[in-house]
Amino acid sequence: MWTANMPSNLDKYLPGIPQATINKLYGSIKSARNASPAIRQGVIQAYGATTRPMFIIGLGL
Question: How many beta carbons lie within 10 A of that of residue 50, not counting itself?
């Protein structure tokens, strides 16, 4: 689920950000620490949107 959803969620929550930057953020979440507050917020939203369904499925099992 992570690899299927996280890249598209990063695209969704980081509009106008170059694909190279999105790829870097996807490759290492630690790179978001040094990013601007707007990018960090987008990464947080994308992370939440990606993990939420996984947690819901996990709770149901």
Answer: 20
